Amino acid sequence: MLTLFHHPMFATCRFVRLAFGEYGEELALIEEKPWTRRKEFLALNPAGTLPILLAEGDVPIVGAMVIAEYLDETRGVLKRDRRLFAEDPMQRAEIRRLTDWYLSKAESEVTRHLVRERVLKPVMPETAGGGSPDSGAIRAARANIRQHMKYTNWLAGTRHWLAGNKVTYADLAAAATLSVLDYLGEIDWREHAAAREWYTRVKSRPSFRPLLTDRATGEPLPTKKMRGTKKGGLIPLFGDPSAARWVGGEGIENGAAFACWENWREDTFYFAAGDLGNLAGPAVPASRFAHPELKKPDAKGVPRPVMIAGPIPRPGQDPEDAMWVGEQVTELVLLADGDSERVMTAAAMARARARHARPGRAIPIVWPRPGCDFASMAAEAAKRVA
């Protein structure tokens, strides 16, 4: 197994991990903090930059594109249709151009500055350049995001994949860059529908799954929490979003548990919406109703029934009011969360069914056993099998 010195929030390192993942090859990962300038690290690369791949014989290969060329020459040429480069020299030139666009241009104009100011400086010692974020640098980087998103949206809207008809290094470079910005919540996907659809397809690939567990500071997050943008989007868990069958609900844990229960069907796209509001969208105000049991005190301390958003979706909604669903979907399985309040969840699930209804589309609502959620039921089933 080869070893990669990396940092989880560096787009160049993510690019290399995606490339090896596309070829089904695992890497031993060593997280490096380059600002510490360890003697052993500098012995591998006196420039003190990442990524560094220890190849056969522990020979260090330095730099994302250098590693990509090495990977193509030693593995890619044998992959035929799965090769991340092209046979045609002009197509290879376009792949290299776009890869450089994201790993060099977008990196120098956007990603590097946001990662440094928002992720690295708070944990770096002052002697290494740490301290309070530079708001001016953040504003400048954010001002540059729009042009890169517009260009990505144009590429995704005019090509099946960014450099042509198949996945290449260009897609991985763009996805690596945008995944860092998306993690930091810096991307507004509402004006970039084509880019969002392309990014969802990339995130659904098996090579992307290890990146979804990366954390900026290394701390584990509770399973209920999310990072990055959510409104109008969704979290892909497994499968191709072009599938005719979609399965998902609020949280990642329920979608993953249900997918395990039905053995991760190859004909299904599994997703998580993040919360009921993003799953169902807003309701018609007139459809609100009083909860039959729950009450809360008003300003005078008098108990009043809790009002619940009704089952009727508000007409004329914007795309970002709720998660998107592909028009080709003929079966949308909605998973109700057993941990959430039952009446509110039932109303929201009915609203989601009405919002996403299309001619010929079946939308069953699946509930876990009372008092459980799908994750706990899956855990119980696993114990019984063991």
Q: Would you mind describing this structure in some detail?
A:
With 386 residues, the protein is an alpha/beta fold. It has 11 helices and 11 strands. Strands 5-7-6-10-11 form a 5-stranded mixed beta sheet, with helices on both faces. Helix 1 links the parallel strand 1 (2-6) and strand 2. The longest helix is centred in the N-terminal third of the chain and has 32 residues, at 89-120. It is globular, with a radius of gyration of 23 Å.
The helix-and-strand class reads alpha/beta
Largest sheet: 5 strands, mixed
The best one-word shape is globular
Count helical runs. Answer: 11
Rounded radius of gyration (Å): 23 Å
**Terminal residue distance:** 31 Å
pLDDT averaged residue by residue: 88
Tell me the helix content: 25-40%
The strand line-up of the biggest sheet is: 5-7-6-10-11
- Give the beta-strand count: 11
User: Regions with pLDDT < 50 over 5+ consecutive residues?
Assistant: 218-229
Q: Order of SSEs, N→C?
A: EHEHEEHHHHHEEHEHEEEHEH
| Strand residue percentage | 5-15%
What brief labels describe this structure?
single chain, 386 residues, alpha/beta, five-stranded mixed beta sheet, four-stranded mixed beta sheet, 11 helices, 11 strands, 39% helix, 13% strand, globular
